[in-house]
Amino acid sequence: MSKKLKNEQQLLKEALRVGALYAEKRHAGRFESTDSVKQKVEYLYRLLVHDKLIQPLAKGQESEPLMKHKLALWISRQLPDDHPLLK
């Protein structure tokens, strides 16, 4: 498994927040308050793979922890270098 990022949990939260805005702007759906974190992670991961914004995980490697890690990596690359979550 990949090395854990610093602040990975907070990065994941930010990825879900930004990803929800992205999905809405793209008219690809919206997260509901009743959606579980697992559902949000899987949906956002699949949307970003579909839009070719992230590389898909290898077949058989699509676990929730790895999807969360991919989303945290994705958002860490979107944030400015001086963002508090990257320190």
UniProtKB/TrEMBL annotation:
It comes from the Bacteria. InterPro entries: DUF5062 (IPR032036), DUF5062_sf (IPR038316). This is DUF5062 family protein. It comes from Exilibacterium tricleocarpae.
